Amino acid sequence: MATTAQFRNGRSSKRYQExxxxxxxxxxxxxxxxxxxxRLSSIAxxxxxxxxxxxxxxxxxxxxxxxxxxxxxxxxxxxxxxxxVNEARRLGLPKDKLARMLTNVGIxxxxxxxxxxxxxxxxxxxSNKRNVDLxxxxxxxxxxxxxxxxxxxx
Length: 154
Hints:
By secondary structure, this protein is mainly alpha-helical. It has one domain. The protein is built from 7 helices and 5 strands; from the N terminus they run βββαββαααααα. The chain has helices spanning 31-49, 62-66, 72-91, 95-112, 117-125, 127-139, 143-153, and strands at residues 2-6, 12-17, 25-26, 51-52, 59-60. Helix 3 packs antiparallel against helix 4 (95-112), helix 3 (72-91) packs parallel to helix 6 and helix 4 packs antiparallel against helix 5 (117-125). The termini are far apart.
């Protein structure tokens, strides 16, 4: 049985072949999907790992900094996380993976809401990176593949 994914412009694309014995197997993704995956990866990197702390291997992102602003900081980070989940939905991810992504966003929101300790939690948990990894894994694409296809175009 073939499964179709509906895109924003109204097109649908047969993307997966599904049989009872076999899980979903990717048939191929288009250039538009690669651009969207690259954008999701960039947003996650900005939110979770944008700046390295000197003399350590630890990285912080905008989510950690936004969490320092009482009230609206965690809400803003959560809205960006929900944007990533919505983009994954539009790319055709199954409901179980979307539920895992929403769980990650919820854990990040609740954990980040705790004063002071929440900021440390935001720096450690990195829900956006986890969610983008779920999306990339679903399509069988690595972060290196996204970078290689970008360099090939130049």
